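Table S4 entry, Helix-turn-helix domain-containing protein.
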Amino acid sequence: MADQLGAPRFLTVAEVAQLMRVSKMTVYRMVHAGDLPAVRMGRSFRVPEAAVEKLIAEGLGDEWGAAAQ
């Protein structure tokens, strides 16, 4: 989640897409819709790893979400 210094870890759109098993376009749509927070760096986006983990846990629902946290 965070590195040894306590700074948040950021993922590229491609890394998020691979982790969530969706296309990069789906990740871009989620970012632009505000469903997934991201930081713009130049022409690319970086997504906080914690935000991806939270989104996945919420998507799993009560049965799996509690175990994922």
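Helices lie at 13-20, 24-33, 49-68.
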